[in-house]
Amino acid sequence: QVQLVESGGGSVQSGGSLRLSCVASGDTYDNWCMAWFRQAPGKEREGVAAIGSDGTTSYEGSVEGRFTISQDNAKNTLYLQMNSLKPEDTAMYYCAAGMTCNNYWGQGTQVTVSS
Q1: Mean pLDDT of the chain
Q2: Please, what is the end-to-end C-alpha distance for the chain in angstroms?
Q3: In whole angstroms, what is the distance from residue 108 CA to residue 36 CA?
Q4: pLDDT at position 94, please?
């Protein structure tokens, strides 16, 4: 069984920063991909950033240059550093993991950016 627990969400003003964390526990594997997704009200869930087992990262276009995904394998923790936040970044943010980056999901953490 795999558990993913996110934290670090909150409310910030436009231009502010937040760092999300996701702690993984249970039967995780070093060759898994990990990712952050988000879902805004009335919109479909979308991928934000992903990191492969080799450290390769990828980002959704609107966050590239503002968000940074990273992981601390010793702590089984995934991070998402979010800078220069915009109101359109407001969403529930989810951590995901697995062979295809989306096999297991956390419960989400809310990020609200006010203008």
Answers
A1: 95
A2: 40
A3: 10
A4: 98
